[in-house]
Structure formats: C-alpha cells, structure tokens
Amino acid sequence: MSLHVYLSGEIHTDWRDEIKRGAEKAGLDVVFTSAVTDHDASDAAGDHLGAESDSFWRDHKSSKVNAIRTRTLIEQSDLVVVRFGDKYKQWNAAYDAGYCAALGKPYVTLHADDIVHPLKEVDGSAMAWAQTTDQVVEILAYVTRS
C-alpha cells in the first residue's frame, strides 16, 4: 500500500529527514511532500507579483501563493504529520491541522509533552500524538502493513 504523507510544521530541525530515513530503512512505500522549507524562499513566494512597501501586504501575497501548494498537497495526501517545535510558535502548523480537521483528513501531531495543554484542541482532532519521529515511523509502518 502506497501512502502519501504531507509533513507540516516547524522548519528549524531535521525532523522531516528523520522520518524519511526511518521510513526508507523500514522499507515503507511512502511518498512525502511538504511546504517549502527554505524560510527566505517562502517569505518571497509572492514577490514576483509586485513590490510592496508594507510588510503586511508582502506577507499576504506570499501566504496566498504558499497556500496554493499547501492546500493542494494536503488535499492529495492520505495522512498529514503536523510538527510543533519548542522554539517558535507554528501558527501555520495549527492552521494546517485545522484544515485537515475540516476536510476530515487524518493527521498525527508530533510534539513534546510540555505543550500538550496549548495544543489540546489540535490534539483532540488528531488520530494520534507522537513525541518522537520514531513513533511516527511506527505509525506509518502499521498503516501501510499488508
């Protein structure tokens, strides 16, 4: 069973690569996609639409262009993994989780236990809460098991 998995969330650690390596090592048939993880490129996604003197409008244009990718890939996925790191607030990840919930798209959250309380609603709609990338790989192995 081939599984399409969208990896959402923080871009400051190598958690995506850890999951990909774990899935490959386990021989899982998984196709991974994600948002653009180059922060500068993501911020500049709408720059080709014209210069803005106000940073709000630059961010607005770029968020719309980024949303084309994000929404399309989430809709095409079978499962979404939403990572919340401890260093920055990932409002985009919370939005992605809410989008998944609205679509009825299964998602797994990945975060430390010290942010369980602020994520209680996000975790409440998730199919699972993982604390490590190894746990995510185990979920993927179970889901793709024949």
Query: How many E-type strands?
Result: 5
CATH class: Alpha Beta
CATH topology: Rossmann fold
Mean pLDDT: 95
Give the number of helices: 6
Topology at a glance:
Elements: E1 3-9, H1 15-25, E2 30-34, H2 39-43, H3 55-76, E3 79-83, H4 91-103, E4 107-110, H5 120-125, E5 128-130, H6 133-144
Parallel strand pairs: 1-2, 1-3, 3-4, 4-5
Helix pairs in contact: 1-6, 3-4
Give an overview in words.
- This protein has 146 residues and is α/β, with parallel strands linked by helices.
- It has a single domain, classed as Rossmann fold (3-Layer(aba) Sandwich), CATH 3.40.50.
- It is built from six helices and five strands, in the order βαβααβαβαβα.
- It has helices at residues 15-25, 39-43, 55-76, 91-103, 120-125, 133-144, and strands spanning 3-9, 30-34, 79-83, 107-110, 128-130.
- The chain has a five-stranded parallel sheet with strand order 2-1-3-4-5, sandwiched between helices.
- α3 (55-76) crosses α4.
- The longest helix is centred in the middle third of the chain and has 22 residues, at 55-76.
- This is YtoQ family protein.
Overview in brief:
The chain is of the alpha/beta class and 146 residues long. The chain has helices spanning 15-25, 39-43, 55-76, 91-103, 120-125, 133-144; strands at 3-9, 30-34, 79-83, 107-110, 128-130. The chain is 47% helix and 16% strand.
